[in-house]
């Protein structure tokens, strides 16, 4: 058992560095459903099986064709004629024996007819190369069951992804430039006491140059405030003056030249960081104002109970501030000084966390639920996020379509938006002709005319006054609904990455439509 | 059957099946790329990789399975692809692309070269080979969620080396040996220590206190005296950390007390060092073990790697790992050497323990094994998804190149998540070549500032090239071994001298302008002044100059060196005898060409080659590191 664990640690070493053990655990507990084992689909699954997803189930009623073998790595010529779900499951399974692979030889439409609840059991459903009508049906089943749904499509040299999730909560958003949480603008009492315990003027030289910069800045801020009407340095000029104050604090030798004190250099460098006001950021403020935060019921997900508890904390104990994060950056200091400073922050963070859990408990009690509070790994109030996507019905509804987004993007006739409109048009074509345009070479010319009509009727139906260039109509006919492997491989990587974000609740997924133009190597995301 | 070529024009589809491409690297990107190539219709593919398969590759390198661990990546990748696509024609080489066998002629066999590499040395090399052969190159890299693809075409685009890349961080010897101030210094020290004790000894990786530390001395003369003493014989006398360890039978307790007590006490006697720094605190084995034989270190299931142990815990780990490594050494026989590998548990344990003990001694916060591994192995996180995206992009660029559509080619950056402008991908038009690039410009030059009296030939040979041109260890300026210890001034090289360095393998010549300077800062042996040659002042004293190679009449013995010396350096700009250089060039060319044909140069194949490149391998770690995301 222990051996197995080490083995896993080794196997997954390079990814644990990105999402940690708890991310890996979430992955290993996930069960993903793939509808259609076309090339894009197996590429997505490959990228989920390799990092060790718990289980997958492929739903596919197709028989393997020669075309499948040509663009799908997980099929070989002896699979021709077999069920596609079965054939690909066998080969995908080989990639990682820790993963449980299952398949259902069934057309998704039939499953939706007979057993729509079949889809409720999954952590995430991914559909690729799915016809529009089936996609919409599946979308509404999953929407009602609150199962996240990722639609993915490779159409010639165009890639498309759509995330359909009612509410996706992110505990660790891993923001790119997270600010430190040092509270130097409004130090909590324990920090003030700790700062007071330092006497910079009467210190051994060695201690002086090993005092953490946080202490130095805090000390001189106190001095500054006394001299400036209890106002912190606000603008560049004042900050520069404050830096000068720090510079003057550097010890001088017998000759009056300043010593080299790296901790002071660090302090001067970090003035901006230090003066960052400790306030609740906008994205967390939005969470506080959300309706789910306001009305905690017995049905409320843990995430919202937590958000509410944090809000209560901010209004009560926190006096307007979030709970202290409790981590401090590395800095020049000797171990003792660093550790005692770290402990001041850490202990305060533990206290704050305890206060938050008290709020959690009281809310749960109020709605008659027992506290089932698992340990949330390194949760960090400032990094909480939530993503709401629109339902497919809303996107497709004549009254609810995001017309403005489409029209304003189409001011640039080569915006990726035109590719979206073309994809909708080929779906319209499929509805009328039960096939995609250009799949038979001899029909390409006629199909161009037919597809143009589809574009026209789509725009008319939605009342869109935009211009779609003929070039795009030709290009989409030329594609003949092909699924080139290299575009499928790209989409496989991109979609699997989103799937991992959804499963681990780390990093913020896109919202809600992603378009990839393989010819120009451009991409865009739209809210549709 | 190949619907895959549906959206491609017929001529392009045809050219795919007839063209020949080279994939350099069969790791994270390489595996994906091979799959994409065969499924897009490429038929003739050659793949080269010197590496073997490791367990930690399996989370993304999908052509490999557990039973392949230890086998050649290139070979297994080929077999796996053929299993699915038997019609492809794939040639696999389990070898370093830097092996001189893969010369310009070899590169000319291809219509396109695609890099899927993990280290800068090899990237630089392939870049130059492709420039020399005038073959388009697609360069790529990933790191975690980030990735990048670009196209390099001689004379049309920037080459891989047109923009200077941030150099690998290196640390001055005395910081490592005497005054570490950051955990990384202790980790580097522990890796050196591993080699000193169990691996190949390297005089540049000394771990004992450095008595010649200029900062420790009371006056400059004394420093100079000490420095020269240690240069001449000091290090050589002390060299035998290994012999000493051997004589104790690798007794962990004796080792512990020497490294963490005696050596530290010795450092404390260099009291100048500790005037402004916090002095280190020696550790004694007996005391550490009296303090706590508590069991808390040994418990803790699961996330063992991410725990930080106590000093007692690390000293036990030190003991255990020394014992294991001793046994390994014994098993291999007398003159055996171990090779440090971050994925080899006892080797990693040893470095974790030794580095942490030293961190503790120097009052730093200790680190978990997981963190130490990251830093020691320069581990770049790597996942399947990013590699898949990047390999997809590479093939699309490849299609444009085969279509001769260079105008449409792009450099593409992959972001972690859509940027504020909602773009996941950021495509950029390719830049024109940098006219001052000393790799792809027609007459490249570089100016270096050094002291001709203090710099020895070996230094110029190794370090000028290494630092400035990205760890090109194979790039020896082919001076004969017997001259390597001599100072540049011994050859009449002085301020304003112009040296010519040739790399015959890469069909490349660089002019080096020497700018003499007596006073260089501590730990700096030379500086690169910038690319513009005219910055070098005119030579102050006109001087007769000779070629280094045949200037030293008594000892010029062309084949004393066993290394593949495919490069050479000559003085070309002798102020008074310009003609001599011309002759030298041709003579040298002849002799080197001959050497290249010697069989012995070919033997440095496979894994061994990689070890020779240790300095280059500083950033080599995973199979898919990033190019330069700055």
TrEMBL record, chain A:
InterPro entries tied to this protein: APP-BP1 (IPR030667), ThiF/MoeB/HesA (IPR045886), ThiF_NAD_FAD-bd (IPR000594), Ubiquitin-activating_enz (IPR035985)
Any one Gene Ontology BP term: protein neddylation
Domain THIF-type NAD/FAD binding fold: 12-522
Protein family (similarity comment): Belongs to the ubiquitin-activating E1 family. ULA1 subfamily.
Lineage, highest ranks first: Eukaryota, Metazoa, Chordata, Craniata, Vertebrata
Annotated pathway: Protein modification; protein neddylation
PANTHER family membership: NEDD8-ACTIVATING ENZYME E1 REGULATORY SUBUNIT, UBIQUITIN-ACTIVATING ENZYME E1
Gene3D superfamilies per record: NAD(P)-binding Rossmann-like Domain
Organism: Electrophorus electricus
Classification via CDD domains: APPBP1_RUB (cd01493)
GO MF term (any one): NEDD8 activating enzyme activity
Annotated function: Regulatory subunit of the dimeric UBA3-NAE1 E1 enzyme. E1 activates NEDD8 by first adenylating its C-terminal glycine residue with ATP, thereafter linking this residue to the side chain of the catalytic cysteine, yielding a NEDD8-UBA3 thioester and free AMP. E1 finally transfers NEDD8 to the catalytic cysteine of UBE2M.
Keyword Protein transport recorded: no
Any one GO cellular component localisation term in the record: cytoplasm
Protein's recorded name: NEDD8-activating enzyme E1 regulatory subunit
Record key words, sorted: Ubl conjugation pathway
Automatic annotation (TrEMBL), chain B:
UniProt domain Ubiquitin/SUMO-activating enzyme ubiquitin-like: residue ranges: 481-520
Cross-link type Glycyl lysine isopeptide (Lys-Gly) (interchain with G-Cter in SUMO), residue numbers: 191, 258, 607
Stretch list, region Disordered: 203-236, 531-630
Biological process, per Gene Ontology: protein sumoylation
Domain THIF-type NAD/FAD binding fold intervals: 8-437
Keywords for this protein: ATP-binding, Metal-binding, Nucleotide-binding, Nucleus, Transferase, Ubl conjugation, Ubl conjugation pathway, Zinc
Cited Pfam families: ThiF, UAE_UbL, UBA2_C
Covalent cross-link site, Glycyl lysine isopeptide (Lys-Gly) (interchain with G-Cter in SUMO1): 165, 237, 416
Enzyme Commission code: 2.3.2.-
Subcellular location: Nucleus
Predominant subcellular localization, coarse grouping: nucleus
Active site as annotated: 174 (glycyl thioester intermediate)
UniProt entry tagged with the keyword Membrane: no
Pathway(s) of this molecule: Protein modification; protein sumoylation
Binding site for ATP: 25-30, 49, 57-60, 73, 118-123
GO molecular function, a single term: SUMO activating enzyme activity
Binding site for Zn(2+): 159, 162, 437, 440
Domain SUMO-activating enzyme subunit 2 C-terminal: 531-622
Biological role: The heterodimer acts as an E1 ligase for SUMO1, SUMO2, SUMO3, and probably SUMO4. It mediates ATP-dependent activation of SUMO proteins followed by formation of a thioester bond between a SUMO protein and a conserved active site cysteine residue on UBA2/SAE2.
Family: Belongs to the ubiquitin-activating E1 family.
Protein name: SUMO-activating enzyme subunit 2
Organism: Electrophorus electricus
